[in-house]
Specification:
Helix content: 10-25%
Distance between the termini: 55 Å
Number of helices: 9
Number of strands: 24
Shape: globular
Radius of gyration: 24 Å
Low-confidence stretches: none
Strand content: 25-35%
Amino acid sequence: MEKNQTFVAVADALGTNGEGIVRVGDVTVFVPDLIPGEKAEIKILKRKGNIAYGKTEEILVPAEDRVRPQCPVFLRCGGCQIQHLSYRTQLKFKTKSVHDALQKIGGIDVPVAPCVKSETSYGYRNKLQLPIGKVNGKNAVGFYAARSHRIVPTNECPIHPEWSEKLISAVVNFMEKCGLDGYDEERGEGQLRHIVVRELRGRFIVTLVVTVPEIKGIDYFLYLLDGVFPEYSFYLNFNAKKTNVIFGEKFQLLKGKGVYECTEHGIVYEAGAQTFVQVNGSVRGKLYDRVVSLVDPHETVIDCYAGGGLLTAMLAKKCVKAYGVEVVPEASRCADAVRLKNGLADKMENVCGKVEDVLENILKSEPNATLVLDPPRAGVDRSVLKAVMSQGVRKIVMISCDPATLARDVGILTGGLWETETGELVKANADNGMYLLESVEPFDMFPQTKHVETLVCLRKKT
């Protein structure tokens, strides 16, 4: 089997990225946009040893689970991977992804609950991040292609609400009328880098990331935004560094309050441009309700990676006391406002700092606390896991948006993985671990994509 060779085969499984898996002799071929049971003509694009990558030339026998993707740039854009799967099949795929990751990476074979569905599978995202750059020397607004910083231009995105299409049109109009350029990463040239929008109950926080302090025609852009959003705040963010980080340190508020207040689960909370809020409101509610159900009223809870304090406040309302640990100063200030507005001054305490720097001291003062962990995609820092085990935390409730890093972290806690003296993780005997994995529950926070939010509960063995 060589590059550019074509052949006919039937896919028999889905890979972790939602691609079809075809086996030809001892070669495993990964083919995007192919569903198990489908017969297709496939062209080989690359082969290395027993692994090959191909593309579908023609689907000869389609599967019953195939649906028509709604996005015109599906598979060219790196945002969605499984729009061609029926939603029922997407949920099954995500349940299996979590189970397989725990088994293959963490050495843990446990039942996984069926993935909790989203109320809407399109138009669900409350946050939009668009790179602004150059494609073939021309300005482009769109999304990055998979595993690259190559922008795929688009004028719509079906997993975002209708306002996203109007926003993209406004950005393109603004650049054309005012003679502005998108950012060229290789040359470090161009004034506009990103446009980021967060929706909070019908109100919006818009941040334009720029490379120069003064942007001509900014009043015209605000005029265009007036036609897109009924109520919004507008920031300029200055970032001239050659970095993959979207925001620079300096924010300039040009319109609005910058922070908006919302009510959810009886909690009044705030959020700003840098405050973490789960992107799918309906699933966030189900997830947070389930987290709260896993803690007891007589417990003290430590909520790590706490964002703006919504979940911390929900926990404080039920429990004896809740600590919220968050590194982003803006988000921690929002959490302080939540504490006061909800009458939780005696039950909620916020700590601004890195979890790895402050958690151990909190655990020493609260040795019987339940720990809630909601880390970024990279997972929990190894030093945090060591602190948790050394302090003998009784119960851990963990939220993860990446099955692979979840499996690694849970594997360490349950003993399925053991760390060598060189820091390498190797498979071990989970029966000898400190923690027992009691439940695994996926939530479909990100329909149409390979990503899934997972909630697990671990308890210290007695």
